[in-house]
């Protein structure tokens, strides 16, 4: 369902941690673009939906947190330089969770956690040793069905705000700098109803502020499933911009400079909850935020895309997390994940 690129073993290349729905979570260890699969996490199956890697205990390596939906059992692991200690009891909340992100919410130098739920989202403050205390009562949080949470400085004031992707109205919470957030969705976001699965930020029009790409589906709601772009006016207020028609049903998109021309391009993949197969899509940016469609290898049923230089050649590669369907262009089948290298 999700992947995270992170140098787990400290050898200088990016490994992959995969959150598996109704299976054991997976580590792919990278050796110059060749991956070895292992399962160093708990020997049990969970409905893992999202994963985040961050140095929560301040020891210089990245720890791993998986959040789960149906079985309401999150998994938290401290990294011991490539091996892991299960400290899941340090996460003091449960819930039907679909999303997780990190930020230093209260400016104390420690990475905190925000978990997006079917219900009230949760803020967990870190004491610096990877022990967490819930502080949700200090803020007003979304109580809808949240599918994505992103931390980004959208108002250019030096701290990270929160963008919440919901199955109805998306939200923006502005960071007050003291561990509290203000819901300013009504004044900062256009009134768009959509079943959002992913929010990505990046400066797509080259004006120095963060714009937003919103990826949508129509699995359970009757809203439009077309993706859309939100253009930042420089103060964290957004208007809907132009994006070429990409069809619908996109659970994830990534902004990445695939053609190495200095601007952010857009790669997206079609997603279904059936056995249908969709195509991967690429739109190249002309540096002003105007996109044109290009062909993209591969097709399948993709829920997450990871862009990273996996083989160390200075160019971004793409890893597609695929669910159930075949990756026709590569000859893989049976729900295999696949990894494309740019030429």
Automatic annotation (TrEMBL):
Pfam family, one: FG-GAP_3
Keyword field: Signal
Keyword presence, Signal: yes
Gene3D superfamilies: Integrin alpha, N-terminal
InterPro entries the UniProt entry points to: FG-GAP, Integrin_alpha_N
Chain segments annotated as coiled-coil in the UniProt record: none
Name of protein: Repeat domain-containing protein
Lineage: Bacteria, Pseudomonadati, Pseudomonadota, Gammaproteobacteria, Alteromonadales
């Amino acid at each position: 369902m999700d992947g995270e690129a992170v140098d787990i073993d400290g050898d200088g290349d990016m490994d992959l941690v995969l959150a598996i729905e109704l299976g054991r979570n997976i580590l792919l260890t990278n050796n110059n673009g060749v991956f070895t699969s292992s399962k160093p996490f708990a020997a049990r199956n969970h409905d893992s939906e999202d994963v985040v890697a961050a140095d929560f205990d301040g020891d210089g390596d990245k720890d791993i947190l998986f959040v789960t939906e149906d079985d309401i059992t999150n998994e938290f692991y401290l990294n011991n330089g490539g091996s892991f200690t299960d400290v899941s009891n340090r996460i003091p909340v449960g819930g039907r969770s679909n999303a997780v992100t990190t930020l230093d919410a209260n400016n104390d130098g420690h990475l905190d956690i925000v978990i997006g739920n079917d219900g009230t989202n949760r803020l967990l403050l870190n004491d610096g040793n990877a022990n967490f205390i819930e502080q949700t009562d200090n803020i007003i949080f979304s109580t809808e069905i949240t599918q994505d949470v992103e931390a980004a400085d959208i108002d250019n004031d030096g701290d990270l705000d929160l963008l919440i992707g919901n199955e109805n109205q998306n939200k923006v919470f502005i960071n007050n700098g003291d561990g509290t957030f203000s819901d300013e969705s009504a004044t900062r976001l256009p009134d768009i109803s959509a079943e959002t699965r992913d929010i990505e930020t990046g400066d797509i029009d080259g004006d120095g502020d963060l714009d937003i790409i919103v990826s949508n589906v129509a699995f359970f709601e009757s809203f439009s499933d077309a993706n859309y772009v939100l253009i930042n006016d420089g103060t964290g207020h957004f208007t809907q911009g132009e994006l070429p028609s990409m069809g619908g049903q996109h659970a994830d998109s990534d902004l990445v400079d695939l053609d190495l021309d200095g601007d952010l391009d857009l790669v997206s993949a079609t997603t279904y909850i059936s056995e249908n197969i969709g195509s991967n899509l690429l739109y190249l940016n002309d540096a002003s935020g105007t996109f044109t469609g290009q062909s993209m290898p591969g097709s399948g049923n993709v829920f997450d895309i990871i862009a990273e230089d996996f083989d160390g050649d200075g160019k971004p590669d793409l890893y597609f997390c695929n669910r159930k369907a075949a990756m026709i262009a590569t000859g893989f089948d049976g729900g295999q994940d696949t990894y494309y290298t740019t030429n």
